[in-house]
UniProtKB/TrEMBL annotation:
The reaction(s) this protein catalyses: 2 a 1,2-diacyl-sn-glycero-3-phospho-(1'-sn-glycerol) = a cardiolipin + glycerol
GO BP field: cardiolipin biosynthetic process
Gene Ontology CC: one annotated term: plasma membrane
GO molecular function: cardiolipin synthase activity
Similarity comment: family membership: Belongs to the phospholipase D family. Cardiolipin synthase subfamily.
Active site: 242, 244, 249, 418, 420, 425
Name listed for the protein in its UniProt record: Cardiolipin synthase
Highest taxon above the source species: Bacteria
InterPro entries, per the entry: Cardiolipin_synth_Firmi (IPR030874), Cardiolipin_synthase (IPR022924), CLS_N (IPR027379), PLD-like_dom (IPR025202), PLipase_D/transphosphatidylase (IPR001736)
Amino acid sequence: MKKRRLDFIFLFIILLSIYAFFFTSIDVHWKYALVGLYGVIIFICMYSLMLENRTPESTLVWMYVLFFFPVAGFFFYLYSGQLYLKGHMFKKKRMHNREMLRKMADKETTPDLSPLQSHQRYFAQYLQCVSLTKMNVHTKTYVLKNGQETFNEIKKHLQSAKQFIHMEYYMFHSDSLGKEIIDILIKKASEGIEVRFTFDTMGSFTLSGSDIKRMKKANIKVHPFLPIKYGFFNQKFNFRNHRKIVVIDGEVGFVGGLNVGDEYLGKNKKIGFWRDTHLMLKGESVQTLHSIFMFDWEYVSGECLINNEAYTKPHPVEGEGFVQVVATGPDTQENMSDYYYTMITSATKSIWISTPYFVPNEAIRTALRIAARKGVEVRIMVPEINDGFLTQYGTRSYFAELLRCGIEVYSYRKGFLHQKIVIIDGDMASVGTANMDMRSFHLNFEVNAFLIEGETIQTLIKNYEEDIEDSHLIKPVAFYKRSLVERSKESFARLFSGVL
């Protein structure tokens, strides 16, 4: 709190100094003094950055931003660069979540991991130890390919809800799909079904106030996650809830890459075809997914659901393989890069990755390089055209390093590739909301489902192979011959890789 107040005092001094320097006729010696004062402030910020002990690359990026972009850089640092804030702002939520997860885990049966192969058991043990949750064997999973399959299933189960509907989305638009789902929620609420809905304020900025009023009028409980209107003073708006969760009656759950909007059905002409993957869960793992929603709901609304048996009753089914749902973000002590890294280092045969944004940290890049050098087949699939200059060319800036190690890089050309998939050795996989970038690793609230064995993984493999047919394999020689302009774009975008 003290440091945040000091930051705003610095901001006030900088703005006052700029005004005095450019718009008043004070003596030149005073102007030199103001320049010196600005230098002192920037030095203090840089020293503070150094004390946070980030990676050298990240620290240097922010130092460059502060030094070369005098005023704008300080604003950018104030609201995007201070990762230490998440440790203070979400401490209470983090401690509460961990306490409740431990209590829930104590009530669960510890699964027998002995049938697993050594690399699978290695990863499963790590998951259980770090996430404070347990592998589930009484869970059935279903792959939903693209928006049509996903939203058909979601709408079907929403309409058949008998007790409650709980939804949490990063992006929820007031377009035709959004309004259709809102209409279903209103209809179910009129039938006496409990409906709770939370959305990320920044991601869902196109969710209209009239639609929110319609839901509230229908007795739907609606709460925004980290409202922007308070962001200037508490700096929370940089930490976004990127999770996509739907839980119905505690029996079925949905998680994956798809938000709610017409573009996810391929109806946006500018974006075109939208390639994505979602997962439907039935059985024990739904309760873990539900607990993540309930923790977030208590944070935004103050309403505690986790101690109510009506919302925590398990609904086991005949399972297929091992499933574990894991949340990461400012409200946990782990980040998704650790889970991805552990998956990658456990691989003995193959590593297949599909992600819209590939801006990995040094640990993951090193793990991929070593795996490829050991003879593990490494494939990385990214979209040909991305939705942002920095993300597109920042991603491409890593291609040369990957290609030199013999890693296959595929550029998806059919449309925009948005799925977040990792498949290891053909018998382990991850499907969820976390991209392979720094925001998902350090800033966003994320949730992934990790799978070991089962037909679902075979479906993911089949879909990945189909996506390769719609992709272009980047050849090293041709890529190295790209123009100086392209290389310059990549190098410029890579300067910002620490904040993408």
